[in-house]
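Methods — Computational structure assignment.
A single polypeptide chain was analysed. Its primary sequence is given first, followed by the predicted tertiary structure written as structure tokens.
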Amino acid sequence: MTIMIKKILLLFVFCSSLLEAQHTITGEMQPPGNFEWIVLYQLKGAKQDYIANTSIENGKFSFTIPKERPAGIYRMIYNLENQLFVDFIYDHEDISLVFDPKLPNQRIQFTQSKNNQIYQAYLRAIAVPQQQLDSLQVAYFKNPSAKKIEVTYAATKKQLDKIQHQYEEKSEGLLVSHFIKSSARYNAALPIKMPAVYLKSVKAHFFDHLDFNNSVLLNSTFISDRINDYIFYLNNSDDPSTLNKLREEAIDDVLAKIKSNQTLSRDIQEGLLYNFAQQQNVPLASHVLNYYIQLPKELQDPSFVNDIKGQLRTAVGNIAPNILWKENNTEKSLHKLYGSPYYLVVFWSSTCSHCLRELPILKEYLKGKNNIDVIAVGLENEESKKNWESQIKNYPNWTHIYGKNKWENRFARAYGVNATPSFYVLDGQKKILGKPDDVQELKVFFKEK
């Protein structure tokens, strides 16, 4: 009997230690939506560290986080295609939340979690007086002699400063304190008369409360979000060349401020390069690339640089990089093809399931269209070559090129191909007219022609 009691007590102690050693995240979507799975990550700068995944049942889900998992910013992704996710602070406490899955950042409530509840309350409390200050500043531009605006502005700023101080005190010792202190925004003691002077002041003080070496902030999107706000939202113009000049200057300012943290600088530069390459903004991408190649060699990613350079080479309006191949022992060249108003260069692979779905759709669409010649480059290796040779028989009217070495194929690298299928529409002179994501976009492109 005594032995049995001891076993029960030991079991109770063991279970209790397990309960103390881990925390739970419990969530509910309202309305539930049609989401089946949710994946949990920890943010680590520009990277995401996978933690776990679980199913969603009637909009409800739950995760268990082991004790050894560090505090930080965590992200739950439930729709990768549309980038739907929820970020939250984890500081070794149980967390419960309710949110609208279609508007996760706007409609979210933490029913349990001191850190997240304080942060939410802070953001709500600070928003109203800050909006009032901004409105008063705009009104002052129009009427810079209005004493009443000055008095109201000063009183509102005093209220805002008080709220900031209160929440900094309330969050002391918690992980959330890093974000509250860094969220403090500079506001002039009195409203400024001239818009240009005001903007200059905002830019000069934009990063006053931000520590670029704070490890908590670095392992979140906070710093990159602030930098993107500075570059993209404080610098605007309807004139494209003026806009590029303003953003070049903003990039120079940011990279000068963070130059002591080269890893952060690398991450910011890679984010900007990807962004500008997607926008096909060659001047700004080239500007950032000049910084990137000056980073220490161990921080540079040569394949990433080649990808970006390829995307810049294939910006709309440029002449497409040449492609060479042999046909019946005769040397062929994309640049020497003639006789067709349009050429469609397709990079694909016989091992790519998405390609195998898209290519038949493309074939069907091109039926009866004699004004589009297809140059299909199959990114393959020796193991997949036979499969490729079998597949191309389904498309006898296309020009097929064996792209050996798969992703390392020289033509794929020249075009900056990082996904298959990739489409490039060229005119008769081989100028790039468009880069549709799929056949559906290709149809829209030619419908507008």
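Note: Residues 277 and 352 are 24 Å apart (CA to CA).
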